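Weekly structure sync, notes
Attendees: PL (lead), two postdocs, one rotation student
Agenda item 3: pending single-chain targets
PL asked that the sequence for the first pending target be pasted directly into the notes so everyone works from the same version. It is reproduced below exactly as submitted, 303 residues in total.
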Amino acid sequence: MKAAVSHTLEALERVILGKPHEVRLAVACLLAQGHLLIEDVPGVGKTTLALALARVLGLDFQRIQFTADLLPADVLGVSVFEASSNGFRFHPGPVFAQVVLADEINRASPKTQSALLEAMEERQVSIEGLTRPLPVPFFVIATQNPLSQLGVFPLPESQLDRFLMRLSMGYPPPEAERALLAQADRRSLLADQPPVLDAAQLQLLQAGVSEVTTRPALLDYILALVQATREHAGLRHGVSPRAGLALKRAAQAWAFLMGRPGVLPEDVQAVFPAVMDHRLLAAHAATRAPPTARDLLAAVPIP
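Predicted structure, written out during the meeting:
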């Protein structure tokens, strides 16, 4: 399994230059069976990272370009009457894929965004009175533009909470950006990149993540961090129990990537900002900037 993980990271880092930490976080998110939200300004590699993940993992892939006129049926599917059978036939939407890229998800209306809620939480879709299971494994990788840009709708809190992690790509370091200018186009590299894993191998890796141990003291540390979000006056409310479970799974995945059999406090600290920052909402009466995940890490002692 170590070789599979190493080859996966190497393949991704050949495409996404200068962002080893972000690449490792993205892989940890998928190994933890979570959904990934990538937020940043256009042109910094959000969609390229999502495409690279789907390509390297060797999974069935569909891309949905979210726009203001996109409808829920465009995501989920629709039944169409067919004269040959004298009945309706359901045509699955692009959500029925192992990896779904929801590109610029916050450019669609809240009604269309909500079409993904059941799929992300239950791994199923209820349409026209029938419940249809989604493929296994199933991941949503969404990109979104900053709320300061025109034509975007903020994601509701319930949907943000369904993303295990949120990443920000940021600008590449100068040496990596020079390599981008000198080398071939990233999409051309993707076309030549063979899959490193398949669905069965990925599920084996995910099973390995679930076997990474978390000692009682480590669970107390996670609980203390979660409790700190609920007691801070600058936050509207604390994170949910689902967020605590997400933090544990993400820390297990990070420890697994690092080749450790058990979770250490530094594994929790490595994933904490990506897991928590999009769940921390400022209190309405806050007179100063709300605390960030790194502020909470600094305030909570390691047991």
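Discussion points:
- The chain is about 45% helix and 15% strand.
- The CA atoms of residues 26 and 229 lie 24 Å apart.
Action: rotation student to compare against the earlier draft before next sync.
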